[in-house]
Each structure stands twice: as C-alpha cells, then as structure tokens.
Design a protein that fits this description.
It is a single chain. It is built from nine helices and twelve strands. The protein has one domain: 4-Layer Sandwich (Purple Acid Phosphatase, chain A, domain 2), CATH 3.60.21.10. The chain has 267 residues and is an alpha/beta fold. The strands form three sheets. A five-stranded mixed beta sheet has the order 3-2-1-11-12, covered by helices on one side. The longest helix is centred in the middle third of the chain and has 17 residues. α3 packs across α5 and α6 crosses α7.
C-alpha cells in the first residue's frame, strides 16, 4: 500500500489520469490525497470532481479555488470555467462532497515513522500542528453548519495577522486565508496576500522559512500546493511544494509518502 499526495490539478483531468497510470495507482490498496484546487482554469473541472467522488480512496484538502466553487454553488451562480460544474445534474452531490473535505490532514507512515502535514497553502509557524488541526476543525464545522454565512464572509485580506481573541467573520476569514492563500509572512505572521511571485517584499519571507528546528527533530514534513511559481522549490526538504504549474503548461506532480519519491507528468 502506498500513499500519494498530488499537487493542484486545476481541471487538468487528462494529465491527472496519466499521472495515476504512471504511479500504477492501485484502487484497492493505495490512497490519493490532493493538495486542493481540483478545479478552475483547466478544461475539465467536472470530470476531475466526478472521478474523485467516485473513488473512496481519493480525497483532498480544500483550496481557495474549491472554496470559490462552493461559493458559486451556494448562490447558484454560473460563471466562467465553472459554469459546467454549477449547472451539472449532480451539483448537489458535488457540493456535499467538497464542503466535507478538511483544511488539513496529518498522515503518519509507520514504515518510516514520518509525519506529513498536508494543507493547500501551508501552516503559519505561530500555530502548532495541534492548534492548526483544532482551527481547521472549527472552520470546517462552521462551514458545514452555515455554508452561506462562511462562504460570503470569507472574502478580503483583513485582518492580516492572527489574534486568539478574534470572533465571527474576522476569525473565519483569517483562518481560511492562512490555510488556502498564504505565501509570505512577516515576523509577526502578518500575511502579504498581494504578492504571488517568488520574491518577498521588504520585511516578509516565505511562510516555510521557519526559525524553529522542531520539524527536523520530529521527522515531520509539510506538504502543500497553491504556489505554482515556486515550481516545487523550497530549499528545505521538510517543506515540499507540489504545485508545479500543470495548468500553466508545467507538470503535475505526485509525492509518494512511503519513500519521498516524486513522480511527474508533463502538460
């Protein structure tokens, strides 16, 4: 049995199938975890969703594009490349499956004694893994119990930094922004959500440039997507970027957690 994490598919269904074939995906024994952003920008979002929903061994963490789809579906808005999904015959099934996906997953591989923390954009250093899991569960419960409220209030770049005293929409928004939109942080973990390049603005650094060495001592790896312009490069083996820009005619990449091997297919 192997566990694979695959980077942002973004509707690139043909490449997704080719990658599953290349890794010899065994539907009886293997597990597939996607890093979010299954849809949008690419040509076959509906096909990707239907394939994943039909296979109980495939799941995903939520990405910002997935949340955008949920927002459109909650409002019954048919827009752009996601029109086909919103208007599909099984749109309710898609909505129910997608909204139940987590914001983070922690996987332990017994053979190597490694822990893998999987999220779409990452986890800020100010949160322990336990705190991140608690906040992820909090926002998931809120999203499922009151989807319209959360999906309509999640837009915006404020507040920029975390405060334990936040309540209501500010609290929900910043939790979602850390998990699904984060790239650069300053020393107070304040988000720079405008910069999508690989070069940090003054006073900021990539979120994975942690000062702490605890992840090394604990055999812990952080696996994420979202940041296509990195092309997977973090210069730190404990932080593994898997969005290698398939939808931008790059590659679609899988990481086999059992041995940290990467496998890719070209666009």
């Amino acid at each position: 049995m192997s566990t694979y994490v695959i980077g942002d598919v973004h509707g690139c269904f043909d490449q997704f199938i080719r990658l599953l074939e290349k890794i010899n995906y065994d539907t009886s024994n293997d597990q597939i975890i996607l890093t979010g952003d299954l849809i949008n920008r690419g040509p076959k979002s509906l096909a990707v969703l239907n394939y994943c929903i039909a296979d109980s061994n495939i799941t995903t963490v939520l990405g910002n594009h997935d949340l955008y789809l949920l927002y459109l579906m909650s409002r019954k808005e048919s827009k752009g490349e996601l029109k086909e999904v919103v208007e599909s015959e099984n749109n309710q099934k898609i909505f129910e499956w997608l909204i139940a996906r987590p914001f983070i997953l922690q996987i332990h591989i017994n053979a190597t004694k490694n822990d893998f923390i999987i999220s779409h954009a990452g986890i800020p250093e100010i949160w322990s893994v336990k705190k991140a899991e608690d906040l992820a569960q909090e926002i998931s419960k809120a999203l499922i119990s009151n989807p319209s409220k959360i999906l309509q209030s999640m837009w915006g770049n404020e507040p920029k930094s975390w405060n334990d005293t936040f309540i209501g929409n500010d609290r929900y928004r910043i939790i979602i922004n850390y998990f699904t939109r984060m790239r650069f942080l300053d020393d107070s973990a304040s988000l720079d959500l405008e910069n999508t390049s690989t070069k940090a603005s003054k006073g900021f650094k990539p979120w994975f440039n942690y000062e702490s060495n605890c992840y090394k001592k604990m055999r812990r790896y952080y696996v994420f997507g979202h940041w296509a312009s990195l092309k997977g490069r973090t210069n730190n083996p404990h932080f593994i970027g898997l969005d290698t820009g398939c939808v931008w005619e790059g590659e679609l990449t899988a990481l086999r957690l059992n041995d940290l091997k990467k496998i890719s297919v070209k666009y």
